[in-house]
Fold this protein.
Amino acid sequence: FQQNDLKFFTGIKTRTPHYSHYITSIKIFKDYPLFGIGIKNFRNQCNEEKYAYGNYSCSSHPHNIYIQILSETGIFGFLLLLLPLYYVTSRLLIHFYNLITNGKILTEFQTCILISLFLTLFPFLPTLNFFNNMSKIYIISYICFIKINIQSGFL
């Protein structure tokens, strides 16, 4: 594994702890691509020498939802995360397109919920542990609001 393999992370300072967590997590994902290492097992696997990258390679989680999902649940878990993100992103794009062309189609509350979920799942920011209680509360709350609006015919 070479540092240059990750052109995506070139904007991150290579001596930061988050960068080390990202590299460690991606190394783990490469060894367990389909199903990952198991939920909340990053903290156990990152101590292994073959995954170490610098002094800060180990933590309770990799500090990025997408990298965490890839390393802990593999591609199958990652696909389960991408489906809701695709739905929210497509609904936001449709809404903003219709807002520009035809006028408002969603209420401000509905738009705020969609934007909140989108920002919570934004891929380029360090994040909380996806499998932690507080993160789940935020995400499940947003999803519940969206589901209620779908059943009501608003989304």
The first helix runs from residue 17 to 31.
